[in-house]
Every structure is written in structure tokens, then in C-alpha cells.
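Could you help me review a protein record that somebody else here produced? Here is the record exactly as it was handed to me:
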Amino acid sequence: MPNQNKPSPPLEDISPHILQLWKMQQTDKQIIQNLRSHYDTSLYGLGLTKFVKIRIRMGLLRTRQQRHSVESIREAMIDLREMYPNAGAQEMVSLLFHEHAMSVSRNVVIGYFSKYEVNLICQCKAPSAN
């Protein structure tokens, strides 16, 4: 049965599940699919358009919507670098998401490394002496 004639499920019922699935870094379509087990699909419907509106209202923005730059992530990167001095770009992206609720592209993190941590990049690229 189509979703357009059904009301959306109550936000208080699905918001904890949305947050849990968001923290698992699932896509919007995956979240919608997994949410179906948490509300009565014969009474309620939830499509992609309505879900995106709910997600934005909850303050859950994707990487491009957050529009982070090298400068906007600097304070968080300094904090994370103290705890994780050997973390690479992909690990830093994950740490920014989970510990600072910042969804940042890998390219921005690499740009940060090339601007502020040039010596670490050189160390990583240097051939190891065996």
C-alpha cells in the first residue's frame, strides 16, 4: 500500500531508532528500511522525502549539508590528535563523526593534514629502513 495516504509514525516512537541507525552511519534508504520493524506499517508510512525532513528537523545533517572546511574542523582535530596521534585520514573521519558529531569528507581531513601536519605526512610516506 502506498505511503502517501498514511500518516507518518509518531516521532517519539521512532526517533531513538533513527539516532541509533544514524550512529551506525546507515544511508537514508537503509534507515527507512530498518525502521519498518519499529512501527505498524498497516497504520503508518514513511517515505524518503518525509524521512529526510524528519532527519533534518532532528539536526542530523549529512556531510555536504554540514559544509565543513579545514578551518572548521581544526579544534576537533587538535583534540582528537592528542588522544589518537597515529590515526590516519579514514580513522579521523570516523572519530570526528562519533566523538564530535561532525560528518566530514575524507578530502577535508586530507586537506587538514597537508596544511597543519605536513611533517606527519612526510613520516608516513618515507620508506622504512629494514
About this structure: Residues 21 and 31 are 6 Å apart (CA to CA).
